Amino acid sequence: MQIKEFDDIIFENRNKDYGAYQMRRKHDDNNLIGFLIASVIIFMVFAMPKIVEYLNSDSDQIPIETKREVKYSELSAPPPIEIERPPEPIEMPPKPTKVVKYLPPVAKPDDEVIDEEIVPTQDELTQATTSSVTIESTDTVIYEAEEAVEVVEEVQEPFSVVEKMPQFPGGDKKLLEFLSENIKYPRQALEMDIEGRVYIGFVVAPDGSIQNPEIIRGIGGGCDEEALKVVNEMPDWIPGQQAGRFVPVRYVLPVNFQISNY
């Protein structure tokens, strides 16, 4: 016997408009609706942390260059070293010498002697070369110098991964000690309870110096500026090497700010 028929038998001689009859007829539908609502609430309770974690994971992704193991055969050969050749020596032209006209004396009649010809003195003959004509010369030698060629040094792009990565003097342990001794927690960050990591990018030059430091990702509250200041105060690093040569390498340093450590 179905429930509806059972309810009709119970309320056969009773007032069906009182309310109990309508409640018994809708009992199964109400139970189903209540079960569905409870199932949805339980699902949301267990699924909500996963949904929040998934949404936060997309927003917290940091574009940081990760280190990977690279085989030597996969690395590109370093650019050839151009050796600057010294300029070729300039050949100086020989210094011109003075030539004095001098002919051996010849006996001639008086009417064939030319008065304009002046016989050179002994000193002039000593300092000059004898010839059939007189050539004047100066002591100044004029020559044209070749135009100087300006040599422009090619700027080498920094590497992301090399055979031997640059490192702080003494290793990572000394780097952490340097950061903890020199970082001062900003007052604004303490008052606002700001914690997190600041990522500073810079280039380690072939001579080990730190060049072009910049903030890649910050947390505010004065922490970004404090991390950048400490990076600028770091000593020279041990430069990276590629094919036996010191080369510029791009590096990203995370600086951790945690109130419990201060």
Ends apart, CA distance between termini: 77 Å
Strand content: 5-15%
Q: In CATH, what is the class of the largest domain?
A: Alpha Beta
Strand order of the largest sheet: 4-3-7
Helix content: 25-40%
Q: Sheet with the most strands?
A: 3 strands, antiparallel
Average pLDDT rating: 77
Uncertain segments are: none
**Topology as H/E string?**
HHHEHEHHEEHEEE
Q: How many distinct helices?
A: 7
- Overall geometric form: rod-shaped
Spatial extent as radius of gyration: 49 Å
Structural class: alpha+beta
The CATH homologous superfamily of the largest domain is called: TonB
Number of distinct beta strands: 7
Based on the structure given, which CATH architecture of the largest domain is correct? 2-Layer Sandwich
Number of domains as seen in the coordinates: 3
From the 3D structure, determine the CATH topology of the largest domain.
TolA/TonB C-terminal domain
